[in-house]
Amino acid sequence: MSEDQPTLPSPSAETPRAAPPEETAAAPVAPVAREGARAERRKQPRGISLLAVLPADGDEPEWDPVDPRLGSRLVLHDDVAALVAPAPPHGADDDPLHVTARHWEVHRALLAGDVVPAPAGAVFAGDPEVAAFLAESYTTLRSALARVRGRWEYRLHVSLSDPAFPETRALDLATHMYAELRRLARAAVPFPRDPPRVLSAAFLVERGASDAFRDRVDQLSALNSALELDLTGPWPPYDFVSMVTPPPLETAAPVKPAPGH
Question: Dihedral of CA 74/77/82/86: which sign?
Answer without folding.
Answer: negative
